[in-house]
Design brief:
Largest sheet: 3 strands, parallel
Number of helices: 5
Shape: elongated
Low-confidence stretches: none
Number of strands: 3
């Protein structure tokens, strides 16, 4: 996730944490199916956590489960998605003077229903 693309080092660290007694192993930044499946095998039977909601390859919950992933984190991606929608709407108003962003927003009734 921080640009250190050394799978052998990642696996070495995951295995060390597993041997030290970690209950769940975290490997944010794994991108390919091969990397994920390799990490799952390296720490098995302990569960591997991966991060979704980052740019780049994206897998469904079902696909990750088929790869052996037991836990998925999404970090700040939902907040960033909300801020992205806010920013796009504000940019539309500023640059075009239009409000078509409202065509795709959820209603007050729906939001209020979430709190019941």
């Amino acid at each position: 996730i921080y640009g250190r693309m050394d799978m052998r080092d990642t696996l070495r660290r995951l295995e060390a944490f597993a041997e030290a007694g970690a209950d769940v192993l975290f490997a944010p930044g794994l991108k390919t199916r091969e990397e994920i499946e390799t990490a799952v095998r390296a720490v098995s039977p302990k569960p591997l956590n991966v991060v979704m909601g980052l740019r780049g390859p994206s897998y469904s919950v079902k696909e990750l489960g088929e790869m052996g992933v037991k836990r998925i984190s999404i970090g700040s991606s939902l907040a960033r998605a909300a801020y992205g929608g806010f920013y796009s709407a504000a940019q539309e108003i500023k640059e075009k003077g239009t409000f078509s962003y409202a065509d795709n927003i959820i209603s007050y009734d729906f939001i209020n229903g979430l709190f019941k």
